[in-house]
Amino acid sequence: MVLAGLSLTLGFIGIFVPGMPTTVFVLIAGWAAARSSPRFHAWLENHPRFGPMLRDWRENGAVSRRAKWMATITMSISAVIIWFTAPKPWITLLVCGVMASVAVWLWRRPEPRSKTPLPPGEGGA
C-alpha cells in the first residue's frame, strides 16, 4: 500500500515537473494497489484520468499515442536542459541514452484499440 501511494504521488508530481515520468508511476501504483488494497485499486481503475491508462495497460500492454507524444516531448525538453546544465559530459550521455531507450521501448508498445464500434460492413469479420 505504501508503494502504491508513493508511486501515485510521484506520478502526480510528474505531471508538473519536466523530466519526471507520470505514466510509469501510475502503472506501478496500479500494480501495487492490486496486490495490497482492492479499494484503492478500484478507485484507480475508475478514476477518469488514471483508469483508462491502467485498463489499457492491463488488457493489452498498450500506451495511448497522446501519452507517447507527451513522454517524448518531455524527455526531449529534459535532454536539452541536461545538455546545458550537466557538470560532466558522461552524465549527459548516460541520461540521454536512458531516455532514448525508454522512448524506443515506449513507441514499440501497442496503442489501445478503439472503443468505438465500427459501422456495419467495416468490421472485417
Q: Largest beta sheet, briefly?
A: none
**CA-based shape:** globular
Could you report the average pLDDT, rounded to the nearest whole number?
A: 87
Share of residues in strands: under 5%
Radius of gyration: 17 Å
Element string (H = helix, E = strand) = HHHHHH
Helical percentage:
over 70%
Strand-pairing-aware structural class: mainly alpha
Walkthrough of the structure:
With 125 residues, the chain is mostly helical. The protein has 6 helices and no strands. The longest helix is centred in the middle third of the chain and has 21 residues. The protein is globular, with a radius of gyration of 17 Å. The relative contact order is 0.12.
How would you briefly describe this protein structure?
This protein has 125 residues and is mostly helical.
